[in-house]
Specification:
The chain is mainly α. It has ten helices and two strands, in the order H-H-H-H-H-H-H-E-E-H-H-H. It has two domains: 115 residues, no CATH class; 141 residues, no CATH class. Helices cover 77% and strands 3% of the residues. A two-stranded antiparallel ribbon has the order 1-2. The N and C termini lie far apart (46 Å). 43% of the residues are buried.
Length: 292
């Protein structure tokens, strides 16, 4: 319901701002003690990883796919931790080894769970579902931690706002001008006009936030306006792909929402579906354009 969204939305924004402010306030102390940045955000990401894994497990079970929630949750945390640690590795080979080991551990956990049950039926589904949750709730979320290790947390806030602004632009444009259905068999309410409005909105927001990023103290946080505008359009499209991916999961599971944790909004995945897919795009875009 709309009134629930109007309450839940501001509370979520206040929570995120509080976490980010606390995380940013510890930057100087972390540097003085030779600790990595983003410890507060990492703890917050771990909580989100667990919640995403639990909701994905509900999807999988509803779709009659074999999954163990405990193993899936462990896999998601492994994915998040390994992705974050890879940025702290002394070499690219070590980084690749960390991530590869985490993926192998996910598979091993699934096989050990199968062995415990002494029943090979559904073992391939269990292995596949474990890896799916490990990537979805761990690796994708881990890209935001990679960003945090190289930028201030406010850059992450800007990237998330840019991604979510597409939803707002698409909603209002679609209601006002939407005529041509985009993917009626998957998401009947989405239109091409709505997507165009969302892309334009995200591009404007991205360019605007990039303009203000030059007021940041750290030069690493200075984002060229063209990068913000282009990146806004790019994450808008990829973010919509994330939204459609979750829609596919929900339809396969026969569920309307991923959960009921957030009144008026559904579950954590219903809020993070687009940022999860946008994370890798934001990371690589800023990495590849940092020398431009």
């Amino acid at each position: 319901m709309l009134w629930q969204r109007l309450i839940t939305g501001p509370l979520l924004i206040a929570l995120v701002i509080g976490v980010v402010w606390f995380d940013a306030s510890l930057d100087e102390r972390a540097s003085a003690n030779a600790l990595p940045h983003g410890l507060v955000l990492f703890a917050f990401a771990c909580v989100l990883s667990v919640l995403i894994a639990r909701e994905m497990s509900v999807f999988l079970r509803a779709a009659k796919i074999v999954v163990c929630p405990v193993v899936a949750t462990t896999a998601a945390l492994l994915g998040l931790i390994a992705t974050t640690l890879s940025a702290l590795a002394p070499s690219s080979a070590r980084a690749a080894g960390i991530i590869a080991t985490a993926l192998a551990a996910m598979l091993l956990l699934a096989l050990l769970r199968m062995a415990r049950n002494r029943d090979p039926h559904g073992s391939m589904m269990l292995a596949g579902s474990t890896l799916l949750v490990g990537v979805y709730g761990g690796v994708l979320l881990g890209f935001w931690m990679l960003l945090r290790l190289e930028h201030s947390p406010w850059i992450l806030v800007g990237a998330v706002l840019t991604t979510k602004s597409c939803d707002i632009g698409a909603y209002f444009t679609g209601r006002a001008l939407g005529r041509h259905k985009m993917i009626p068999w998957l998401s009947p309410k989405k239109t091409w006009e709505g997507l165009a409005g969302g892309v334009i909105t995200a591009s404007i927001i991205g360019g605007t936030l990039a303009h203000f990023s030059w007021q940041c103290i750290d030069a690493a946080d200075h984002i060229p306006i063209w990068v913000g505008a282009f990146g806004g359009a790019l994450v808008a499209v990829i973010g919509q792909a994330g939204d459609l991916a979750e829609s596919a999961f929900k339809r396969d599971a026969g569920l309307k929402d991923s959960g009921a944790l957030l009144p008026g909004m559904g579950g954590v995945l219903d809020v993070l579906d687009s940022p999860l897919f946008a994370g890798p795009i934001v990371y690589w875009l800023l990495l590849l354009t940092s020398a431009v």
